[in-house]
Design a protein that fits this description.
The chain has 405 residues and is α/β, with parallel strands linked by helices. Helix content is 35%, strand content 17%. Helix 1 crosses helix 2 and helix 8 packs parallel to helix 9.
């Protein structure tokens, strides 16, 4: 595998054959300066090379500036370990306010069209690249299955699968069936090339390990120069979430694909460092040549998708709810049903729409969907019996397996 190019993120480098860095993301409210500062320091101390913080408003941005000042006052040993990345969704214009205080900016291609719709995504990315260049920071093109830019990158393949790579097809994308995540990543990377900005990496994340492997292999084949951030989005609760992440990331790492990674887990704030520990353990196993994954990941039984706890979660009961869902649905382990438990608006709509049963958690209530159709909104105390009733209905109506004659 050809080495990707090297890009600097604060005090570390990703790509270019540098050691694989492990990342995590703060679950505290960004405006809670004390809690967020403490969690950043703790995650860095436990081995996170990059720590991501969500910024959705000018108040978040102001809080990040204060957090940055506090980091600057730390002793050099810890201060040098902290490399902040900021997560932008709809509010991409906030990049200008926060760029002086971070090492990397992550933007979501699927959310660029949510605001200022009269401006093309290309011009928005040009502006973001200009901000990043002026502030001497890196960019990440962060593509997620739950929020793909379907307006610009429609899936022309069969069942969302990748049929051909552009490289195999002589570079002619018109005759190529591309997964929409892959199409989005390739187009954004090509545009950054065209405007002369090279200090970027790409992530292509899905909740299905098989799709993560497929799209990342294909991206690496087409763009072997671009550093890749690996991850399974909404991997769920440990230990299942760790196993699901390993099923996707370990094969890719052994193939030489991936320069930095995050294992995204649904855990309470005080257990957030478990993401770092799981990531470091995976990297150590790969470096030592230890393989723990045998065969392809299979979702033949119950599949619970739950997003990692982050500052956008509107109610901290989301994590407890996800744990209870896993507990009360154990009886359905052998049934091919997907349940998504989502904590915020970023990937909540997409994942809950694609699941057999989707729980999209708000501040005071939980939206319950069955195969994309909203059944109603219920309080956190009411939702579990409603979920069980719907799960039993789905199980009872599953196609019967033919009996041997």
């Amino acid at each position: 595998m050809t080495k990707t190019r090297e890009i600097r993120v604060g005090t570390i480098f990703i790509g270019g054959g540098h050691p694989i860095s492990v990342q995590s993301m703060c679950a505290t409210k960004t405006q809670d300066v004390e809690a967020t500062f403490s969690q950043i320091a703790h995650l860095a101390e436990t081995g996170a090379g990059i720590v991501r913080v969500a910024v959705d408003s000018r108040r978040d941005a102001a809080a990040l500036e204060e957090i940055s000042r506090r980091i600057a006052q730390l002793g050099p040993d810890l201060r040098e370990k902290i490399n902040l990345s900021v997560d932008l969704q709809e509010n991409f214009r906030l990049a200008e306010q926060i760029a002086p205080f971070v090492a990397k900016i992550r933007y979501n291609p699927g959310h660029l069209n949510h605001t200022e719709k009269d401006i093309s995504w290309r011009e928005k990315v040009r502006w973001l690249a200009g901000v990043a260049k002026n502030a001497d920071v890196a960019l990440r093109i962060g593509v997620n299955c739950g929020s793909v830019d379907t307006e610009n990158f429609q899936d022309t393949g069969v069942n969302g699968e990748i049929a051909l790579s552009t490289a195999e097809n002589g570079g002619n994308a018109k005759n190529t069936h591309l997964h929409p995540m892959l199409a989005s990543a390739l187009h954004h990377a090509a545009w950054l090339d065209e405007i002369g900005f090279e200090r970027f990496c790409v992530s292509l994340k899905d909740s299905d390990p098989r799709q993560v492997i497929a799209v990342n292999r294909e991206f690496a084949k087409n763009r072997p120069d671009v550093p890749i951030h690996l991850g399974v989005t909404e991997a769920g609760m440990p230990p299942a979430g760790i196993m699901k992440s390993r099923a996707a990331l370990e094969p890719l790492l052994f193939e030489g694909i991936g320069d930095t990674l995050r294992i995204s887990l649904t855990v309470a704030n005080e257990r957030k460092a478990k993401e770092v520990a799981a990531g470091l353990a995976l990297v150590a196993d790969v470096e030592a040549g230890r393989r723990t994954v045998t065969g392809e990941w299979s979702n033949t039984g119950l599949n619970i998708i739950s997003c990692p706890s982050c500052s956008r979660v509107q109610n901290s009961r989301f994590v407890e709810l996800a744990e209870k869902v896993a507990e009360i649905t154990m009886f359905a382990q052998n049934f091919p049903v997907t349940i998504a438990v989502m904590g915020c608006r970023v990937n909540g709509p997409g994942e809950s729409d694609h699941a057999d049963l989707g729980l999209w958690c708000g501040a005071d209530c939980v939206n319950l969907k069955r195969q994309g159709n909203l059944l109603g909104s219920f309080s956190y105390d009411e939702i579990l019996p409603k979920l069980l009733a719907e799960l039993n209905f789905i199980i009872q109506n599953l196609p019967k397996k033919p009996q041997p004659s």
